[in-house]
Known about the structure:
Blueprint: E1 5-7, E2 12-13, H1 21-27, E3 46-50, E4 53-55, E5 67-68, E6 73-75, E7 79-82
Parallel strand pairs: 1-7
Antiparallel strand pairs: 1-2, 3-5, 3-7, 4-6
This protein binds FE2/S2 (inorganic) cluster.
FE2/S2 (inorganic) cluster binds near residues 34 and 61.
Amino acid sequence: MANIIKIIEGFSFIPRSELNLLEALESQKVNVDYQCREGFCGSCQVQLLEGEVEYTSEPIAFIPEGRILPCCCHAKSDLTIEIPGGCHLKKTEQ
Ligand code: FES
């Protein structure tokens, strides 16, 4: 069954199952910092408030308690996350 991703102070969406969490957020034009996209740098960290994720590859970066690395995990259940600095959407070209 499809999981729902809820961003606190943002919105909710249902990600395509083949996308990792970072790709799913990007598909919704949500701004998330990232560098390596492979679990090395830790720059993509978001707070996991509710739910469970599954890592597709074991992250190398240190992950503080309660945080996850969206670049290398998938939603295993409905998730509620908080993006550092708030939920901001990328501006689209007109
Ligand atoms: S972008 Fe480097 S750990 Fe996610």
